[in-house]
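Student: Please help interpret what follows.
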Amino acid sequence: MTFVGVTRTREHMPGRVPIMATRRGLPRRVGLLGGTTTWADCLAAMYYLANPRRLVQGAAIAEFEAAFAGQVGVRHAYSFAAGRVGLYGVLQALGIGPGDEVLVQVPTHIVVANAIRYTGARAVYVDCELNTYNIDLEQAERALTPRTKALVLQHTFGIPADIDGAVALARRHRLEIIEDCVHALGATYAGKQVGSFGRAAFFSTEETKTISTTMGGMVVTDDPDLAARVAAYQARCAWPSASLTARRMLKLALYHVLTEPHLHHYTRAAYELLGQRHPLPRPTTDEELRGLRPANYEQRLSNAQAALGLRQLRRLRANLGHRDATASAYRARLAERGFAAPRLPAKVQPAFVRYPVWVAHRAAAVRLTAPHAVLGTWFTSVLEEAVSPTVADYELGSCPRAEAAAQHLVNLPTHPRVTREDVQALTNALAEAS
């Protein structure tokens, strides 16, 4: 089992684990961000900042899209400013709109429900199973009506959903499957990449995901007719401004520096002191948190972001190898301490963007792990980040398992900055909190 720490990295070929140097004697605190980027990525970001004519439009976009399609094993990929923008485009391309219903599991993020609602369709919420945090397909079938047109199939935390069951359900009821792979880049089901099973799939390269372009998303499909419609939608989307793209490049570089584990004890305190006053672009707008649609919602991915995504996609194999080793270590140590692990069916190879843990007392878990890491709290609501789930028409009490998960889930970082010592410290702290 190989663990990788990060204070200084050197670039490496895909499939090789980089050699990292660690500084002894300094306190470590692992962040949730910055762990998928390298110093060379930061230099690349600075290159684009110094070359504004290549910042927004350029050849890296098509190259990134082609590489992404190849990674997933499909013929077509289209980049957007965020995965949610791609989902909205797919729904439109499938002709889903007013009067239609789309099944979507909870817990999920408010932006997924919003993308459905922005088309005029109704999001129908389905509870999760607590052993995988993926959709309960039996409840999904009971929720069907003649107006149901599609199922958004979420692979939560990078654990593939029951794809065989979902495909069978879709065939019985003539539903479109749209895979939600925002957590699951590189995960496989029966040896095939997730994202290659449904009519289409969407991914995220937002700063908390498996690879980071600060913001960004991708739609993939093997259907040429649907691909043509998504391509036409992409062409109608606005380019981001040069200033916004520049701020995203700056944010990527700053987050890489500020979340370096030996600095993070100090930089996190300053970040929390600033609160919402910092000038860096945020991943979710205030309008989206209230269930409203922002004016500049439909945007494309910039050339500079695509170039950064392509760099990280080339390192994906090593990235996933580290995440798999880290998740296995969490699983083993937490099992010794009486924590239940997510169920992984035989056909599944997860790609844990974070490792989920059910805790009795979340506040205690966050407090006791704080010296060692910023603990992830996906999901604190059935519709994460929403000011209230009711803003997206969720009926309180309708999905009790998801609501319980929103009270008890924490999630542990798996990115390449996490070391064996971090795993030990975090699992020991969780045991103390239980």
In short: The longest strand covers residues 148-154.
